[in-house]
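User: Teach me something about this protein's shape.
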Amino acid sequence: MRFLCLHGRGTTAKIFEMQTARIRQALGRDHQYVFANGNVPTQPDAGAAAISDEFFGYVGNTVPEYEQLYQDLLDIVSRQGPFDGVMGFSEGGAVAAWMLIENARRPLTFGPFKCAIFFSAAVPFDPDVVRTGIVKPVDPATEGEMIQIPTAHLWSSENEVNLEPAQSLASLCSARVRETFVHTLGHNVPGSKSDSEALAGALRIIERTIERARD
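Assistant: First, the predicted structure itself:
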């Protein structure tokens, strides 16, 4: 499968590549991964300054910035897609969910995604509401299970950044094909720290999600 991979805010595509290295190695050589940088300069996330001297996000604060993000994502899919799956960490996961919500409302806008993997991801902004000039998150209580493709959700019980948002994002996805795994590594990707139990748990639900996408 071919995955689009979206990094967390204050990092880079290269850093997300490093964060997911052990997971990708364990998943085997049958998959391809395209890591895309955000275009919004930011302050570095914790530890990022030791690896890079540039730091990015995807999400700005204004409607025009969201409109530009939309076009940037369309360009990535057009130039480097199509993609079978999308993988995102933190803000990158919220952007991935944003793409899937747009696909749910306007099929194949971003191509035929078959699955998604979310690491400590937040609830996305509602693309239809953004079109009205308002930047507002999707309300899971109102919208229900908008995303119907297989999804894997990984977050930490010790995450002060995105614990509740990650749970809310999971509720936007079909319970029938949704997998969740809770670890204790804080706001991190399992495998980026030495914890074999967390890595095994992450791989278990990711592999199940990929298999469902292949059915």
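Now, about its shape. DSSP finds eight helices and eight strands in the chain. The helical segments are 13-19, 21-27, 63-80, 91-105, 127-130, 140-143, 163-171, 196-214. If you'd like, I can walk through any region in more detail.
User: That's plenty for now, thanks!
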